[in-house]
Amino acid sequence: MDPNTWCVLWILGSILMTAAQNVPMLCIGRVICGLCVGIASSVVPIFRFDISSMSGVLGTMAYKEYFGYPVSYRQGAITASMPAGSLVGSLFSSFRVVAHV
């Protein structure tokens, strides 16, 4: 699909969620937006790295050697942040229980 089509679908999903009259309408809008967010989060880092010009900084051979590192580091950071976020969330939820908030 054309990238503009995904943008239009994302906007339509957002409008559908905003104008939701009932739960199924909200769920359909969330599914549409979730699909578009998933595609954007997988395509944008690769596109951003493809259009960057590292050949002038490191040379052509270094560009080919380090081609996948920015995308891999981003994915690794996302994966590492999940347990960290879960730990912080569990600490604050136990604080709320103790403090009766």
From TrEMBL:
<keyword id="KW-0812">Transmembrane</keyword>
<dbReference type="InterPro" id="IPR036259">
    <property type="entry name" value="MFS_trans_sf"/>
</dbReference>
<dbReference type="GO" id="GO:0016020">
    <property type="term" value="C:membrane"/>
</dbReference>
<keyword id="KW-0472">Membrane</keyword>
<feature type="signal peptide">
    <location>
        <begin position="1"/>
        <end position="20"/>
    </location>
</feature>
<dbReference type="InterPro" id="IPR005828">
    <property type="entry name" value="MFS_sugar_transport-like"/>
</dbReference>
<dbReference type="GO" id="GO:0005351">
    <property type="term" value="F:carbohydrate:proton symporter activity"/>
</dbReference>
<keyword id="KW-1133">Transmembrane helix</keyword>
<protein>
    <recommendedName>
        <fullName>Major facilitator superfamily (MFS) profile domain-containing protein</fullName>
    </recommendedName>
</protein>
<keyword id="KW-0732">Signal</keyword>
<dbReference type="Pfam" id="PF00083">
    <property type="entry name" value="Sugar_tr"/>
</dbReference>
<dbReference type="InterPro" id="IPR050360">
    <property type="entry name" value="MFS_Sugar_Transporters"/>
</dbReference>
